[in-house]
């Protein structure tokens, strides 16, 4: 285990098993939908690549990249789109794939964006959910694991651009970011 990790919450095997379960559930609902699947870069990349390989229906893969403003003064302006879709989602079902739902601002922003473009349905699958930190009333439709209010890294999640490639979900030692 990496020396900067306080504890492992979910091993690679536990995560992979859970992703298989999520894929089975989602596959029963999307047989005739032909959705656009939209991972949110960069955090969702590792989770999404494994999930999408296990989805057993016709789909298109796209992606978006977003960033959160540090300045929290305008709630609607907290999220900025850095990379837009290449697909037109008008009349299409959209499945957003996220690494973690925290405050909920990112998900709310994307829901509003895709709804404004006429998406037929919008659902979200998130590897992790941190409900204790929610600031807006949004939830993922499919969640891998609920996590405590701690700083999580691994399986795509980073601190300062690092730890994304760790093949497990863990809690980062406070000493790494409290200096
Ligand atoms: P939101 O607050 O908009 O729901 O989540 C925005 C983003 O914050 C997430 O997609 C994720 O990139 C980041 N984030 C939230 N909580 C954590 C965490 O515990 N660890 C890491 N690495 N990123 C997080
Ligand atoms: Mg994210
Ligand atoms: Mg990040």
Automatic annotation (TrEMBL):
It is an enzyme of class 2 (transferase). CDD domains: PRTases_typeI. Pfam families: Pribosyltran (PF00156). It is found in: Cytoplasm. Its EC number is 2.4.2.8. Its cofactor is Mg(2+). Residues 10-159 form the Phosphoribosyltransferase domain. It catalyses: IMP + diphosphate = hypoxanthine + 5-phospho-alpha-D-ribose 1-diphosphate; GMP + diphosphate = guanine + 5-phospho-alpha-D-ribose 1-diphosphate. InterPro entries: HGPRT, Hxn_phspho_trans, PRTase-like, PRTase_dom. Keywords: Cytoplasm, Glycosyltransferase, Magnesium, Metal-binding, Nucleotide-binding, Purine salvage, Transferase. GO terms for biological process: GMP salvage; guanine salvage; hypoxanthine metabolic process; IMP salvage; purine ribonucleoside salvage. GO terms for cellular component: cytosol. It comes from the Bacteria. Pathway: Purine metabolism; IMP biosynthesis via salvage pathway; IMP from hypoxanthine: step 1/1; Purine metabolism; GMP biosynthesis via salvage pathway; GMP from guanine: step 1/1. One of its GO terms (molecular function) is nucleotide binding. Belongs to the purine/pyrimidine phosphoribosyltransferase family. Purine salvage pathway enzyme that catalyzes the transfer of the ribosyl-5-phosphate group from 5-phospho-alpha-D-ribose 1-diphosphate (PRPP) to the N9 position of the 6-oxopurines hypoxanthine and guanine to form the corresponding ribonucleotides IMP (inosine 5'-monophosphate) and GMP (guanosine 5'-monophosphate), with the release of PPi. This is Hypoxanthine phosphoribosyltransferase. It comes from Limosilactobacillus rudii. The lineage of its organism: Bacteria, Bacillati, Bacillota, Bacilli, Lactobacillales.
């Amino acid at each position: 285990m990496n020396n900067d990790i306080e504890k492992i919450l979910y091993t690679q095997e536990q995560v992979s098993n859970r992703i298989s379960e999520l894929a089975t559930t989602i596959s029963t609902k999307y047989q005739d939908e032909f959705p656009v699947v939209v991972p949110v870069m960069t955090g969702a990349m590792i989770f999404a690549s494994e999930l999408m390989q296990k989805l057993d229906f016709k789909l298109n893969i796209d992606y978006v990249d977003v960033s959160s403003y540090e300045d929290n003064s305008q709630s609607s302006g907290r999220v900025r789109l850095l990379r837009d879709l290449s697909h037109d989602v008008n009349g299409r079902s959209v499945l957003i794939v996220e690494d973690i739902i925290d405050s909920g601002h990112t998900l709310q922003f994307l829901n509003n964006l895709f709804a404004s473009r006429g998406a037929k349905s919008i659902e979200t699958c998130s590897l992790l959910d941190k409900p204790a930190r929610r600031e807006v009333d949004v939830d993922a439709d499919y969640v891998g694991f609920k996590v405590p209010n701690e700083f999580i890294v691994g399986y795509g999640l980073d601190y300062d651009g690092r730890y994304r490639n760790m093949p497990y979900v863990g809690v980062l030692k406070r000493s790494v970011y409290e200096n």
